[in-house]
Amino acid sequence: MNSDKILKRVLFFSSLVIVLIAAAMVFSLFEGSLPSISKFGWRFLISDQWDPTQGSENYGALLFIVGTILTSVLALVIAIPLAFCTSLFVAEYFRGTKLASIVGTLVDLLAGIPSIIYGLWGFYILCPLVVEAGLSPQGFGVFTSALILAIMIVPYATSLSNTTIAMVPNDLKEAAYALGATRLEVIRTVILPNARSGMTASYILAFGRAIGETLAVTMLIGNENAIPHGLFSTGNTMASVIANQFGEASGLQLSALIELALLLFVITTIINAIGKYIIKKIG
Amino acid sequence: MKKSIVLVALLSLMTLGNKVSAQSISGAGATFPEPFYNAAFASYERAAHAKVTYGGIGSGGGIRSLKDKIVDFGASDAFLTNQELREMPAPIVHIPTCSGAVVVAYNLPGVKQIKLTPTVLASIFLGQIRNWNHPALRKLNPGVRFPNKEITVVHRSDGSGTTNMFTDYLTKVNKVWHSKVGAGKTVNWPVGVGAKGNPGVAGAIHQTQGSIGYIGSEYAFAQREPSALIQNKAGKFIKATVASTSAAGKGKIPADTRVMLTNSSAPTAYPIAGFTWLIIYKDQAYNNRSFAQAQATLKLIDWMVSRNAQALAVKTNYAPLPAGVAARAKAILRTVTYKGKRILK
Q1: How confident is residue B165, by pLDDT bands cut at 50, 70 and 90?
Q2: What are the b/e assignments for A186-224, b being 16+ CB within 10 Å?
Q3: pLDDT for B5 beyond 60
Q4: What tens digit of pLDDT does each residue of B244-271 get?
């Protein structure tokens, strides 16, 4: 057998293993959630009750879905302007300068910080600030979590944006300048239309990351199993409740947690699919 | 070449090591008694030339591991319910190893010590008393100047034996709690914020003025967290200490030791206390285990309730078993068999 054939087989089998693992994951999640699915059916999706007390066990995912979407959307709303400005700064305005490379490196560095450190920083710095501002009596809640999430996802939102902005052909920009366009006009009429799909993709990537983030959110959201009634109210997310309750759960509770995991999987897949669709549509 | 020599040397070392250590015993479960177990198992390894590995994966995980027969013993902070016992593949026995308590910690600058009755404690955690300036609190603590401040309740967000003990107590002493919330490793909290683990709850309390929460004694004693005096069944206000926790086990307990010690009637007992258990199969001949393996497991557990091991419990901030309970544990261990034959004499 020549080396080319060996390489081909190695590649084939490694890819197959990945596909098999993903399939096995979905299968075991589905199998694990069967007791919960058969007990609650569709009610699981629309009920906001999460009561693990023996005798009156009742599980619904709605409050966690709301909590997850609320924190992630809010994080994205905060992160997009930050990421957008940073991308323009690094990839357009100060492109190629030392300053841009320092800023770019620092932003990338944010992605490498373990989430426990974000959690601790939020716990010890952000929470007291929120309390001092008189926004909530203890500082935990949707707003604090979203703020931390926003900082955590900025690097994801900028990485791809930077590349696509930098890839906008110089000829186009120069042509626009030659026609007398200002810098703002060049950004609006040349860079944005060209880089739009890449930037959207990176925001969706960032959104996906915010949805799955567990540890930092667990430390900051307050872990109250109720639908948040305001920006500064406490709540809970899907990833967070799984991390919290999995260790000591058994029976129906365990099954309900696994069904939550399955839901999280499905939601993430849908978001990725939407992302791909958008990129295709406008790219 | 050099590498292979090192490898061979390492391999021979490993096999040598195996020959010296007679038996390797593995267990998994509760995180609450883990500091005690780690200290005790390390001490046992030195004395008895056995290898003991323990995974603190949570009580639920410990029960699951024993059910799957992948460990020699499991560990749990909550005894198995009748339903759980039926679901096990074979009969098991509970061996209490020590007890612990749940303390009520708070953050009120300038306030040294507060007293709480079961009713007031439950009312706070039910959200019925929402301000420190409440008449019930002032009446109970004459001389204490309570601030006009909202109460922030802090509870565990993760499933835990500590929560089970605390909510079991509230269920016993308060009818409203019993009907509205109930007891369990995780419950549907009426008010408050959740934090992960004892350090999480302690951290949130430290950081939030006007907060109150519950912490496992193994953490609270080690960190010297100030805590509230709780009125026990005999009407006395008791501080949580190793002695008052141990005293909770001095009352009548059932033959299989499956009992929650909360709301103990012993006059010197701290009311929010309970045992933690090791669980093993009543007949040790399963999964082709050797007699030597079964014997090693039993000897280890027998040593855990001995005076030497119980002294280590105190050192690691747990309450030792009262003499009567230790004797009961030893008696239970002597009912454990291998193919119908008793193992310990």
Answers
A1: very high
A2: bbeebbeebbebbbbbbbbbbbbbbbbbbbbbbbbbbbb
A3: no
A4: 999 998 888 899 999 999 999 999 999 9
Where does residue A75 fall: left (phi above 0), alpha (psi -120 to 50 degrees), or beta otherwise?
alpha
Query: Measured between CB atoms, does B75 come within 8 Å of chain A?
Result: no
Pinpoint the alpha helices (H) of chain A: 3-40, 43-46, 62-88, 98-112, 115-121, 127-132, 142-167, 170-178, 183-186, 192-212, 215-220, 238-245, 251-282
- Residue A173 falls in which region: left (phi positive, over 0), alpha (psi -120 to 50) or beta: alpha
Select from A138, A225, A249 the Cβ nearest to the Cβ of B208.
A138
Q: Kindly report whether the global pTM for this prediction surpasses the value 0.80.
A: yes
Q: Complex ipTM, two decimals?
A: 0.84
Chain B interface mutation, best of A138, A218, A241, A248, highest count of B Cβ atoms under 10 Å: A248
d(CA A153, CA B25): 45
In the three-class reduction of DSSP (H, G, I as helix; E, B as strand; rest coil), residue B161 is classed as helix
Q: Distance (Å) from the C-alpha of residue B147 to the closest C-alpha of chain A?
A: 14
Q: How far is Cα B288 from Cα A129, in angstroms, rounded to an integer?
A: 60
Burial annotation B262-291 (CB, 10 A radius, 16+ → b, else e): bbbebeebbbbbbbbbbbbbebbbeeeeee
pLDDT digit string, tens, across residues B99-108:
999 999 999 9
Chain A hits for B204, CB-CB cut-off 8 Å, are 138, 140
- Tell whether A52 lies on the interface with B, counting CB pairs under 8 A: yes
Residues B67, B29: contact at Cβ < 8 Å?
A: no
Q: Alpha-carbon distance B39 to B218, whole Å? A: 13
